[in-house]
Amino acid sequence: MGTITEILISKSPDEPMCSLRQVNAIAGRGLEGDRYFTKKGTFTPEPHKPDFELTLIEKEKIDEFVEETGLDFEAKDARRNLVTVGVDLNRLVDKAFQIGEVKVKGIRLCEPCNYLAKQTYRETLKGLVHKGGLRAQILSDGAIKVGDAITEYEQDQPG
Fold first, then answer.
1. Where are the bilayer-spanning segments (predicted)?
2. Which fold has domain 2-11+19-152?
3. What is the 3-state secondary structure (H, E, C) of the chain?
4. Rounded mean pLDDT of the chain?
5. In angstroms, rounded to a whole number, what is the distance separating the alpha carbons of residues 57 and 79?
6. How does pLDDT run across 83-120, given as a tens digit for each residue?
């Protein structure tokens, strides 16, 4: 279905995203070391909300944005945690899927915001609408690695 090409975290909203080869995902918390895991993110909700645990974006959508605008914009500029290829993330809203050994569930689209536009370019607001990625809930603990496959699975139904 798809593959992880890059893993990015930031310890605080003011720091640039740093690239990792592997990261630990903790169910109900997020990615170890990331600003939302430590509740230091710009939009950290209180109480906790599952759609702030993990964010993903398609490399193809970033490339399309760069081609359309001519702007110098890289995956790290989008401030999403995981960069993917070969998967339509919009289709994964309300779907269970797996990244390597980690089970997750798509919650909602990760639309561009004013904070992102202020950090990069005003054009990101319009240019990445419905292309800004996916917010997901982490359902099981485990390591996520660059190169991990993204696969759908049937989520167990209660009862």
1. none
2. M1 Pyruvate Kinase; Domain 3 (2.40.33)
3. CEEEEEEEECCCCCCCCEEECEEEEECCCEECCCCCCCCCCCCCCCCCCHHHCEEEEEHHHHHHHHHHHCCCCCHHHHCCCEEEECCCHHHHECCEEEECCEEEEEEEECCCCHHHHHHCCCHHHHHCCCCCCEEEEECCCEEEECCCEEEECCCCCCC
4. 87
5. 9
6. 999 999 999 999 999 999 999 999 999 877 656 556 66
